Amino acid sequence: MSILAVDVRWGVRGKVVVDGVSLDVAPGSTVGLLGPNGSGKSSLLRLLAGLRPASSGVVRLGDDDLASLGRRQVARRLAMVDQEVVTDTDPTVRDVVGLGRLPHRPSWAPLSATDRAVVEASAATTRTGHLLERPYSTLSGGERQRVQIARALAQEPTELLLDEPTNHLDVRHQLELLELVRAASTTTVMALHDLNLAARYCDALVVLADGRVRAAGRPADVLTTELIADVYGVDAQVQSVDGAPHVRFTGVLA
Ligand SMILES: Nc1ncnc2c1ncn2[C@@H]1O[C@H](COP(=O)(O)OP(=O)(O)OP(=O)(O)O)[C@@H](O)[C@H]1O
C-alpha cells in the first residue's frame, strides 16, 4: 500500500507546524524524512498515522482517505513507532510485543497460537527474543527501541512510520534495523537525523524546514552542498560512495 499526502496542514497555539506538505510514497518504498530539530517531522508522522487530524489537506492510505477509517482499521495496516513510549503499568516485553496483535483480535480474547507465533517471529527479527520475559521498565534505551519495533512488526503492517528509529541504538543495531526496514515489503516513512544512513538506506528523501518540504527525491538529487547549507546552516562536501551520496561536514556556517 502507498501513502499519499496532499497539501496537509496542522498547527498548534497559532503556530503553523506542518505547512502544506504533499508526499507520494510508492508502495514498498522506504522514505527518509529529514530536517532540523523542530522542522515538523514528528508532527507530520502523527498526521500520516491518523493520530491527529490535519486542519486541512488529505492523507490517503492506498485507496482510502485516512479520515474515513476507524482507528482499528488503520491499526490493522499501519504501525507507528514514536520517539517516547510511556507506560503506566509494568508489562513484560512479551506483553508489549503482544500489543501489536490487538488490532487483529477481539480485545477480550487471549492471544491465539498464530498471535503467539507472530510475537515470537517479531522478537526474533529484532533480536529481542531473549528479553521476552523481562519487565519492559528494566530495559535499556536501545533494547526498548528494538522492542517497540518488534511490537510494530507484530501488527503485520503494510505501512510503517518510524520516528528516529536509530535513536539509542549502537552502530551494529542501527545497521541491522535499517537493513531490516529496507528488506521488508512495507511502505516505510522514517524520520532520521543521520544524513549518511538516510542516503544509504532510503529510496527517497524528503527534507522539511519550517514545516514545508524544501526538497524531495532520490538521495543523490536531494543531498547537495547547497541544500545542506540552506537547511542546516552547515558546510559540507558530498561525494558518491558505492552509488549513494556521502556527506562530510566541514564546519558550521556563520
Ligand atoms: N503539541 C504541541 N504544542 C506546542 N508546540 C508543538 C506541539 N507539537 C509540536 N510543536 C512544535 O512544533 C515544532 C515541530 O515539532 P516536531 O516535534 O514536529 O519537530 P521535529 O522535526 O520532529 O523535531 P526533532 O528533530 O527535534 O524531533 C516544534 O517547534 C515544536 O515545539
TrEMBL record:
The keyword Nucleotide-binding applies. Residues 3-235 form the ABC transporter domain. GO terms for molecular function: ATP binding; ATP hydrolysis activity. Keywords: ATP-binding, Nucleotide-binding, Transport. SUPFAM superfamilies: P-loop containing nucleoside triphosphate hydrolases. The keyword Metal-binding does not apply. Pfam families: ABC_tran (PF00005). This is Histidinol phosphatase.
